[in-house]
Amino acid sequence: MLREMGNVRTAFFLVGTTIGAGFLTGAELIRFFRGAGSLASLAFSCAVYCLVCAFLLHLGKKYNGFAGAMHALFGRGANVAICLLLAVAFVPCAGMLAGLDELLPAYRPLPSLAGLAIVLVFLSRGMRGVSFLSVLLVPLLLVFIFFSGTGFVTAAFPSASETGRGLLYATMNAAFAAPAFMDAGRDTRAPVRSSVLASGAVFLCGAIILGGVFGAGGDAVSAPMPYLYVMRGSKVFFATVACAVLTSLASALFPLLSACERFAGEKKNAAKIVILLAAFLLSRLGLNGVIGVLYPAVGVFGAVFSAVCIFNEYFFKQYHQRIHSRRQKAENKGRAHHKVKFEHLTAVDD
Fold first, then answer.
1. What sections of 104-234 are H helices per DSSP?
2. Would you say the C-alpha torsion 309, 310, 316, 317 has a positive or negative sign?
3. Global pTM exceeds 0.70
4. Percent residues over pLDDT 90 in the chain
5. Closest by Cα among 146, 169, 139, 174 to 244
């Protein structure tokens, strides 16, 4: 077991899983938050994200990690739920690798291969390595974003479509990191406090990036990677994106490689190679290809998955328990002996 993770350490872990290449370059933020109500929509999204994160951490703490939570919530269907979430984890892996190659397109695929190698070193230490990587890099990431602000986003009431996109963005990020969140929850001290800190940091970072993009004008908004367009020429920004990619890639790969530990001998290593190769091949779609094609679909899946988990945890289990309680009470009542009167006894010839 890992040493219990404090509030700030867990918050760094949550931020590290959420702020990746798509977030920091502005590619996914502009896709989900554009329009007059973008700031309010982002605030709503972060509030939903906070609740879902706290819930997933709570599940991991209560049921001893990802696998335990899935078996507790889905019973015989646990293996199906586990496979679906692990399949979803391929998407951010591909997005992060594609983001590394976008930073240095002339040298692709060397940046993505180098990023994989670095992350695998930390993953060799399990969740402890993932947490340490977040603690090491996320503070640097936050400092750069906070001091890179170049504009402001005007606040306006969001439309229904903007609110819907904000909801999808929150559930998408939750689905991407659900296995890692539940495993981290096993050693988390205060899930709610950590989630509040992380969602607050994500909101501030998102508002700064959106303000910088909108402040730079239409050319930045229409660019494939808007904030990269705003920060073009900044070597520090390139290094910051690389830090964001490494933390997100580590948290996405962790549950996938952990699942391979079930195999024995050479099968385990072969499974890990297949997973890494599949993520690398999917990354050939490019960052905008992954964000444009796969991210919205994952958002819908995340919304459905979160709703089912909440229903199973807080409604179905209690209803199921009441049914068993009533059945037990009926069995106990039926177990009483019938009263036998004197005339029912047969005569005895002595």
1. 110-123, 127-146, 160-185, 191-216, 218-222, 226-230
2. positive
3. yes
4. 25
5. 139
Q: How many CB atoms lie within 10 A of CB 128?
A: 13
Determine phi and psi for 20, rounding to 5 degrees. Answer: -115, -155
The sign of the dihedral angle between the CA atoms of 301, 306, 307, 311 is positive
Closest CA to 214 of 146, 150, 148: 150
CB-count exposure of residue 132 (10 Å: 0-12, 13-18, 19+): middle
pLDDT of residue 347: 55
Tokens 């390139």 found at = 238
Nearest to 55 by CA among 314, 253, 296: 314
Biggest alpha carbon distance in the chain?
114
What is the CA angle 55-57-62, rounded to 5?
90
Give the pLDDT confidence of 34-47 residue by residue, as tens digits: 877 888 999 999 99
Residue whose pair of structure tokens reads 């790969």 in the numeric block:
253
103 class by beta-carbon count within 10 Å (0-12 exposed, 13-18 middle, 19+ buried): buried
